[in-house]
Design a protein that fits this description.
four-stranded antiparallel β-sheet, 2 domains, Alpha-Beta Plaits, 9 strands, 4 helices, five-stranded antiparallel β-sheet, alpha+beta, about 150 residues, elongated, binds zinc ion, SH3 type barrels, single chain
Length: about 150
């Protein structure tokens, strides 16, 4: 099925983000700042049937991701894979991985946290658990779950 999906609307150069949990495609585009980006053609397939159940797929032409963007995707869609396409071929496949240290990607939900006090302190978290996803603030030790993380991606 994956191959079939890739074949249906092949893109020449860009990325295909596959195996996004159902309903999260728009959120993935949002954290990548794609909403207002008219330099890329975006194709979204929501609620696609796959061997592992339902999923969303996003294809973005002429756009590549840096490590920080891949980490952001991992935090909201830990099952995702990022395929890099050049000249219609998949040249690289990343299985996203939630980093042990999450710096400058998520805002702490504790309003009293030093990272929310207009101090020049960048938010930083440690990974507590991958499944279910839990991270802990380095400064105030507040823990955040997957939903809270998804709502506070910077
Ligand atoms: Zn904090």
């Amino acid at each position: 099925m994956d191959e079939q999906v890739l074949k249906v609307q092949k893109i020449k150069n860009g990325i295909v983000i596959d195996h996004i949990p159902c309903g999260l495609a728009l959120k993935v585009l949002k954290i990548l700042g794609i909403e207002g980006d008219i330099g890329s053609t975006v194709t979204m397939a929501m609620h696609v049937r796959s061997k592992m159940g339902w999923k969303d797929v996003v294809k973005i032409e002429d756009r590549y991701l840096d490590d920080r963007e891949i980490d952001k995707i991992a935090l909201i869609a830990p099952t995702a894979t990022v395929n890099v396409i050049r000249n219609y071929q998949v040249i690289k496949k990343h299985h996203v991985n939630v980093p042990e240290k999450i710096k400058g990607i998520v805002r702490c939900i504790n309003p009293k946290c030093i990272t929310n006090q207009n101090e020049p302190v960048e938010p930083e978290f440690y990974l507590v658990s991958k499944n279910p996803l839990v991270i802990r603030c380095k400064y105030c030790e507040r823990e955040m779950n997957a939903q809270e993380i998804a709502n506070n991606i910077i």
